[in-house]
Amino acid sequence: MHSSKHSLIYSAIILVLMTISARATNNMVTTTVPLLAKYSLQLSNSLVELLSALLFTFNFITTTFINPELNSRVRRRVFVISNVIILFSLPLYYLSNEISIWIISIFAGIAFGLVMPNLITAASLANDKKSVERLLSLYSTSLSTSLILGPAIEVYLLTKYDYRDVFLWFIPIAVIGIIISSSIRFPDVKRESSGISVIKNKGLTAAALSITTYNVLFAAFTTFLAILAKDRFNLPNFDAYFVFLPFYIMSFLTRLTMTIRPFENLRMPMLISIIITILGLFGILYAPNYSIFLAVIALLGIPHGSIFPMATIMISRATSIAERNAVNSYFLAYNNLLFLVVPATIGFVSEIVGLSLSISALIIPVAITAVAFFKMFWNDNIMVKRCFVGSFNIFQ
User: Fold this and answer.
1) CA quadruple 358, 362, 363, 367: dihedral, nearest 10
2) What b/e sequence results for 258-289 when a residue is b if at least 16 CB atoms lie within 10 Å of its CB, and e otherwise?
3) Quick one: how far is CA 377 from the chain centroid?
4) Rounded to the nearest 5°, which phi and psi values hold at 279?
5) CA distance 40 to 48
6) Helix, strand, coil fractions of the chain, as percent rounded to 5
7) Which domains does the chain have, with CATH numbers?
């Protein structure tokens, strides 16, 4: 018992450090590469958009088609190698020109696509059901931590250095990932599942529907939130960017609460999260001033914090260890797809009806998806109790 507790604490520390390293670096690369291309390499807007799409595309291909097909032993080696590639990509971005930046982005996209899904799987490999759900919430909390620390570090660096230099300053963070990457757990099974049979798993369906109720909004936020705040309230750049701070802080606090006290029954937390999302979308449209707008955005941090960990918990409750890697890979691939489709759609529609109305119109897909989700899963055991498929002995 004592040994098991120490093992869980060790796994938690490793998971937190690896997640913060990987996600902070990933977020920095995906947000700074376009800025490097635009302002340092003088690429046109269309080429910048194409470069971002290239990074996403290779991430998506790797997450969807390569990672699910690799067995656990090979995936462990590839995971370590991918962290090395991520580290070397940082000084290469610093030295990049208008041609090499495309090649570097291909390899970076592939590497990140082989790292992130395996972290979710690692979080779901504890010996008992309660520890699994607590580690999944801790993983989500670590994601939120990285989304606060990473941008904060970059904002500070940009007061003293240019976009190229930022990549060099993130090298120590990437080094942490390399040092501990070999300690990340992988499923100890002889054969893992993938393909159509896994895609039909109800845990994947439930997770995809539940995350859609929020990530259509979050995908729009990542691209347009600061723009919306700046245009609507005539703010300077810093105040417009500040809108993300209360959002991510509230998300972090929500996930921290779920780590300390995991939800067993997901019905009411999901329902409340979706209601907050819908009310927040109305609030964005009708907020009369910047202070109330900030309060609305902070409120929307609650479902951002709660829905993702609940989606990963649904996957853990409905899958065996042999299915877990593929389901997590397909789940992240679906999230990546949302982040490609939604901003493009909002950008197009906003040219016709304006940005505020375009974002508020996301109430429609949120409501439709919520109705579908609750109709299919309100009485399902993945919502009302911990019902795990297969054995959770990681040494099987």
Assistant:
1) 160
2) bbeebbeebeebbeebbebbbebbebbeebee
3) 23
4) -65, -40
5) 12
6) 80, 0, 20
7) 1-188 (1.20.1250.20), 192-389 (1.20.1250.20)
Rounded CA-CA distance 303/172 in Å is 32
Side chain identity at residue 223, one-letter code: T
Contact 159, 52 (CB under 8 A): no
Q: How far apart are CA 28 and CA 146, in angstroms?
A: 10
- Give mean pLDDT, residues 359-372: 94
pTM as predicted: 0.85
Nearest-angstrom CA–CA distance, 326 and 68:
4
Could you give the CA distance from residue 329 to residue 323 in angstroms, rounded to a whole number? 10
Q: Can you give the length of the chain in residues?
A: 396
Rounded CA-CA distance 368/49 in Å is 30
Residue-wise pLDDT tens digits, 191-238: 777 778 788 899 999 999 999 999 998 888 877 887 788 888 887 766
Question: Given this model, what pLDDT does residue 392 score?
Answer: 35
Separation between Cα atoms, residue 89 and residue 177, nearest integer Å: 14
What angle (nearest 5°) sits at the alpha carbon of residue 32, between those of residues 356 and 366? 35
Q: Which two tokens stand for residue 338?
A: 């949302």
**CA atoms of 303 and 250, how far apart (whole Å):** 9
| pLDDT of 391 strictly over 70 | no
Q: Which candidate, 117, 182, 128, 176, places its Cα nearest to that of 150?
A: 176
Residue 238 is predicted with a pLDDT of: 65
- Measured in Å, how far apart are the chain's first and last C-alpha atoms? 19
Residue found by looking up tokens 């393909």 in the block: 195
On average, the pLDDT of the chain sits at 88
Which amino acid is residue 145, in one-letter code? Answer: T
Of 50, 26, 195, 179, nearest to 114 by C-alpha is 26
Query: In this structure, what token pair is assigned to residue 335?
Result: 């999230």
